[in-house]
Each structure stands twice: as structure tokens, then as C-alpha cells.
């Protein structure tokens, strides 16, 4: 049995709990959230124990799931992930039984793979990558650490997404594209050219609308 603490009690954590309930090897001890008004209450029949800093009081054998979901500022998830690393905790990867993942996929620590996700051959996922519901990642793609792909994104073959990047819902990236670190792709975008680091881009085609972050 794996003892787990989940960070965050928003909408994504509800779906994460559904995934956890499919896995009899996981025991959720409780939740941590920085909203003090929630402390001492329950979420999915488990206690909200305290703030994220309260994690430091637990045994390091406990695994942590970063249950913070869609936020165009991926640095929120990044800061939480780095905090648990500084506390010497390990992040736990969860994969929905309702996803399709090739046996050739390499998956890093602390990844979240939601229902309906398809990840095909020879894909590499870095640490703390979040693939939200219905994401499709085609063959030979790589997704860097701490990146977030929102609901319904489609990556064609051989796309490279660097670290700390957010791809908005229902966006499509054509094959052989490189997306830089720290960038944000707006919802519904179609990406047909490479995207540099630390920019916001949106629309169809997205390269016609680019702003520095």
C-alpha cells in the first residue's frame, strides 16, 4: 500500500481522486491546501490537514501528488513541485485506467495522466507533466518537465515541448514543431511554426499573435 498526500482540492483533484479510487494499492492520507478556510474540513471523505508547508511534518516515505490543475501560469505547479523536492518527498505518478499509453512511452516522476488521454509510441514525458482529459500525443513527441497540456490538446508526431509550458484547451500542434520553455499557447490555437521561449501565442495560425511574457 502506498500512502499518499494530495496537494490541492480544486476540480482537478476531484478527477485525480476518481483515478486513485481505481487503484487499490493507494491510500490517501489527506489533502493539503493553502486556503485556511478549508483546514479541518473534508474533501472526498478525507481530511484537509493544513497548508502545503504542513507537508514537512510527515514521514518521507509518503508520496505526494500535485493535484493543482489548469492554470495558465505553470509556475504555480512548478513552485509547489520544487517545494516538495526541497522537503525530500517523492512525487507520485498516476495514470487513468481510461487512458491508452504505449509501452514504449517514458514517463517521469509526478506525472498526471487523465481519462481519455492517448500517448503513442516513443514519447517522452518529463517530471510533473500534466496531460488533461482527452489529450492526444502522437509518436516521437517529447514534453519537458512541469508542462501542462489542457483538455483536448493534440500534438502531431515529433513535436518537442520544452519545460514550464502551458498548452490551452483544444489546441493543435502540427508535426515537427518545437515550442520553447516558459511559453503559453492560448486555447483553440493551431501552431504551425516553432515558438520561442517565454511568449504568449494564440489563434489560428498562432504565429500571427505573439507577445513576450
What does it look like?
The protein is mainly beta. The protein has 2 domains: 91 residues, Rossmann fold (3-Layer(aba) Sandwich), CATH 3.40.50; 120 residues, UDP N-Acetylglucosamine Acyltransferase, domain 1, CATH 2.160.10. Helices cover 10% and strands 31% of the residues. The chain contains 2 helices and 25 strands. The strands form 4 sheets. Strands 7-10-13-16-19-22-24-25 form an 8-stranded mixed beta sheet, covered by helices on one side. It has a 6-stranded mixed beta sheet with strand order 3-4-2-1-5-6. A 6-stranded parallel beta sheet has the order 8-11-14-17-20-23, with no helix packed on it. β24 and β25 form a beta hairpin. It is globular. The model has no long low-confidence stretch (mean pLDDT 94).
Helix-strand blueprint:
Elements: E1 2-7, H1 11-20, E2 26-32, E3 42-43, E4 46-50, E5 63-66, H2 75-86, E6 90-91, E7 94-95, E8 100-101, E9 106-107, E10 112-113, E11 118-119, E12 124-125, E13 130-131, E14 136-137, E15 142-143, E16 148-149, E17 154-155, E18 160-161, E19 166-167, E20 172-173, E21 178-179, E22 184-185, E23 190-191, E24 199-201, E25 210-212
Parallel strand pairs: 1-2, 1-5, 2-4, 5-6, 7-10, 8-11, 9-12, 10-13, 11-14, 12-15, 13-16, 14-17, 15-18, 16-19, 17-20, 18-21, 19-22, 20-23, 22-24
Antiparallel strand pairs: 3-4, 24-25
Q: Brief description of this entry?
A:
Helix content is about 10%, strand content about 30%. With about 210 residues, it is mainly β.
Amino acid at each position: 500500500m502506498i500512502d499518499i498526500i494530495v496537494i490541492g482540492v480544486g476540480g482537478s483533484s476531484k478527477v485525480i481522486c476518481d483515478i486513485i479510487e481505481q487503484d487499490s494499492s493507494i491510500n490517501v492520507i489527506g489533502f493539503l491546501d493553502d486556503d485556511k478556510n478549508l483546514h479541518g474540513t473534508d474533501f472526498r471523505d478525507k481530511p484537509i490537514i493544513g497548508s502545503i508547508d504542513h507537508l514537512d511534518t510527515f514521514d518521507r516515505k509518503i508520496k505526494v501528488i500535485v493535484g493543482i490543475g489548469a492554470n495558465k501560469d505553470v509556475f504555480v505547479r512548478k513552485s509547489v513541485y520544487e517545494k516538495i523536492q526541497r522537503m525530500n518527498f517523492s512525487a507520485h505518478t498516476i495514470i487513468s485506467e481510461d487512458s491508452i499509453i504505449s509501452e514504449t512511452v517514458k514517463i517521469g516522476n509526478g506525472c498526471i495522466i487523465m481519462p481519455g488521454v492517448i500517448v503513442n509510441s516513443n514519447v517522452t514525458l518529463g517530471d510533473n507533466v500534466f496531460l488533461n482529459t482527452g489529450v492526444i500525443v502522437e509518436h516521437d513527441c517529447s514534453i519537458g518537465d512541469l508542462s501542462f497540456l489542457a483538455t483536448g490538446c493534440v500534438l502531431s508526431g515529433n513535436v518537442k515541448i520544452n519545460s514550464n509550458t502551458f498548452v490551452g484547451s483544444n489546441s493543435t500542434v502540427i508535426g515537427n514543431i518545437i515550442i520553447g520553455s516558459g511559453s503559453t499557447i492560448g486555447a483553440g490555437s493551431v501552431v504551425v511554426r516553432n515558438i520561442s521561449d517565454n511568449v504568449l501565442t494564440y489563434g489560428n495560425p498562432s504565429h500571427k499573435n505573439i507577445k513576450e511574457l
